């Protein structure tokens, strides 16, 4: 990762403390650099005031969906008798091409721990879990050490800093399933069950872990909270780029055949062109940009003409895609879109939990068709079948968002690069059907 930019506490709340050598920032160093000041301020006010500050700051979820964090906290039940509550951090970062949360957990573990303590204060949770992707071994080790340091310093456990508030925090490593990124599948896995999504309602805020009120937030979302408590909502609003309605900064990046792949903390609303050219160094010599995905494998492709869009939730959404994780993938001019989509759909089909029919059967069906088209053995009507699957597996037709996310890049690939799919339709197959008197539009 490249960090060749000037960072300070006022402009880079997530990364200003990072060491240039990539070594983790441990408790003593973190404490000297305003560490746990947000916790101290949160404990001095009511939980409702903490929720209000985060709501007023306009922090939107950084895991991909962009739901307002403060609003999510406010949905927790007001009934004081429901006093067993859980705060969960979704650290199951398995979206292909995404690596932003790993940076924070490996090098800035105390920032996440502090954010979890504040979040727990806001929703009145007595216990929290960081549900971590099992492959993130170094992140698990660093987080456990940070939790131990915070516990010894009195920021975790019983009667935190004499406030009368209790909070215990644990790291739970998953077994490596993409579906665990869906919050209810994560909850099932945490309970020791098969990682299938749950029906909603009831929502986790009312019935989550072991049937108790639960809130689930992404790593980057939680890591924004200490700065908001420390510096206020007006400051946080002032961090975004001019012209963006969203607040704060965002970890953004580019991977693919660029000169300097990496992740940087930038004002939300920074244009994709600036991220690609000024930070990622542009495309490698001899290559041109053909298309790009704004925020992970499950987002629609955009074209070079979309690079001047601000990287925020609304502008990318209006262009027909989603900002997602804001870790973009550059597709160069050598890449065949059919082969790329076959590779992506194989991943999504393999990672389906199998709970609902459209996802369980529809994704392997798309893989079968894409393999045939890739070999030049596609049949007339195959493209139309893929388009039908994109509709049938879309929002509202499946149990969770896995299948709709899987077909997003497929529908946009067909939209922008249909000729590459048509090139894989077998001429012999077309001639055979013509002889039999079957027209392509009848298939």
Automatic annotation (TrEMBL):
MF-aspect GO terms? NADH dehydrogenase (quinone) (non-electrogenic) activity
In this record, what's one Pfam family? NADH_4Fe-4S
Report the EC code(s) recorded for this entry: 7.1.1.-
Q: What class of enzyme is it?
A: translocase
The residue ranges of the NADH-ubiquinone oxidoreductase 51kDa subunit iron-sulphur binding domain are 338-383
Q: Which keywords accompany this UniProt record?
A: 4Fe-4S, Flavoprotein, FMN, Iron, Iron-sulfur, Metal-binding, NAD, Oxidoreductase, Quinone, Translocase
Q: Cross-referenced NCBIfam families, in alphabetical order? A: nuoF_fam (TIGR01959), PRK11278.1 (NF008436), PRK13596.1 (NF010120)
By what name is this protein known?
A: NADH-quinone oxidoreductase subunit F
Q: What is the lineage of its organism?
A: Bacteria, Pseudomonadati, Pseudomonadota, Gammaproteobacteria, Celerinatantimonadaceae
